[in-house]
Amino acid sequence: MWSYWGAAAAGGLSLALRSNRGRLVAWGWQPRRWVGSKPEEGKSPEGGGSATPAKAGAEGRPAFKLPGCKPSAFHKKMLVWSGRFKREEDIPPVVSFAMIDAARNNVRVKVSYAMVVLTIVACIATIISGKKAADRHESLTAMNMAKKARWKKESEQEAEVTKRK
């Protein structure tokens, strides 16, 4: 019961904040910036200065890090196979996630094309071997009948041996 009333009170509070947003902004309240949202052009999140990123720190590092990762040996092979780079030595130490995803998709398409070609080759080989077997008058039905006859003969011989003992 208490959780219901607590949820209703929280919902009412958020409704009140949404409906009074214009008044709150006039009083100096700024809405929270969520992860990934960008500040408005020309305004800084804190209210002073510009919206440009901070300058490099004292160590000479940039204030922000571009999204990317160090490619593994497999990622490097994928980047070369997909045609993004000519050699593995040409790949930079940090590669963007989008480039790795694009290379992965390209390799996935190439592998699917190769599988289609191999399937067609296997079908053609099966057809050829089936026609050669038909020329030799071999069929699965005849082979199965011969195998069952052999099993029946072996079981009869085993039955005779057990009767004699």
From TrEMBL:
- The record lists the membrane-crossing segments as 111-130
Where located?
Membrane
User: Highest taxon of the source?
Assistant: Eukaryota
Q: Where is there biased composition of kind Basic and acidic residues?
A: 152-165
**Key words, A-Z:** Membrane, Transmembrane, Transmembrane helix
Gene Ontology terms: cellular component: membrane
Topologically, how does it sit relative to the membrane? Single-pass membrane protein
Has UniProt tagged this entry with the keyword Chaperone? no
Write down a Pfam family by its short name. DUF1075
Member of which family? Belongs to the UPF0389 family.
Q: Per its UniProt record, what PANTHER family does this chain match?
A: GROWTH AND TRANSFORMATION-DEPENDENT PROTEIN (PTHR13674), UPF0389 PROTEIN CG9231 (PTHR13674:SF5)
Which named protein is this?
A: Protein FAM162B
